[in-house]
Amino acid sequence: MFNWHVNKTVDVTFGIDTGNQVTFGSSDNNSRPAGYFGINLNNLLGGKLKIVELSRVGPENPTSTVAGYGYTGRVSNQAERFWNDINATLQVNNRLSVTAEFNYLHDQGTRTPYGSNGPLKSADAWSVVTFLSYVVSPSVTFNYRGELYRDNNNLMVTTFTGDNSYMNAIAGRGYTTYPNGGQASDRGTIYGELTLGINYHPDLGKHVRVFALRPEIRFDRSLNNTHVFNDGRNNGMFTFGGDAMIGF
Asked: How far apart are CA 162 and CA 66, in angstroms?
């Protein structure tokens, strides 16, 4: 990936690679490259606002999977996947920063088996994400993340049932998933997500340069009441997590 610093306000990004989560030779799932392009707008509003747009396009589906959707195998080299992401971060003051982000993804190579026509016959999804970070004290920072994610035909979100199913799906080998609560693909699902967390990072001194504890709680819910969590039993799910860091 290359970054061209045009001036103090504008950066242009572009690059090329073998594809998403694949590499050269037999470890590539098709025979065409993919690439990035985007633009950064820096130092807006007196240095308080930054806007980043990044897009990615290229064939990403394995030949065997695309053939399974009724295409000939070579179409895996022509069916494009489009990622588009734009986010804006505003440093409101010394304590508060907020970020808003919009994402859109469309995949020509993954098709719905339900006979849908038009733009939603292929995998299609969008999301809106908001972030907030507030410095409570020199050693405590509060973090928030909220998201709405629309999987327009239930082709982007799934639950893999095997330990290696995700890797096998990318490689084009056999894999198993749990169906999304028996919902037809052309109905789609809207997901809502809320994450709250604390970053506790006191200055311990005594040769400890970095110390942090970061617990968080997350809640996900299907907003159109489809039962897509816990093997199709629930329409919502809590997740608790955290990590610890120490550096010398």
From this structure: 21
| Residue extents of the structural domains in the chain | 2-247
Per DSSP bridges, beta strands 140-151 and 122-137 are antiparallel
Kindly report the number of other CB atoms within 10 A of residue 124's CB atom. 22
Q: Is the pLDDT of residue 56 over 80?
A: yes
* pLDDT tens profile 22-51: 666 665 556 677 888 999 999 999 999 999
Give yes or no for residue 228 having a pLDDT over 70: yes
Considering the domain 2-247 in this protein, what is its CATH number?
2.40.160
26 Cβ partners below 8 Å, 6+ apart? none
- What is the SS3 assignment for the chain? CEEEECCCCEEEEEEEECCCCCCCHHHCCCCCCEEEEEEEEEEECCCCEEEEEEEEEEECCCHHHHHHCCCCHHHHHCCEEEEEEEEEEEECCCCEEEEEEEEEEEEEEEECCCCCCHHHHEEEEEEEEEEEEEEEECCEEEEEEEEEEEECCCCCCCEECCCCHHHHHHHCCCCCEECCCCCCHHHCEEEEEEEEEEEECCCCECCECEEEEEEEEEEEEECCCCCCECCCCECEEEEEEEEEEEEC
* Residue predicted with more confidence, 164 or 144: 144
Rounded Cα–Cα distance for residues 105 and 24 (Å):
24
- Comparing 91 with 23, the larger pLDDT belongs to 91
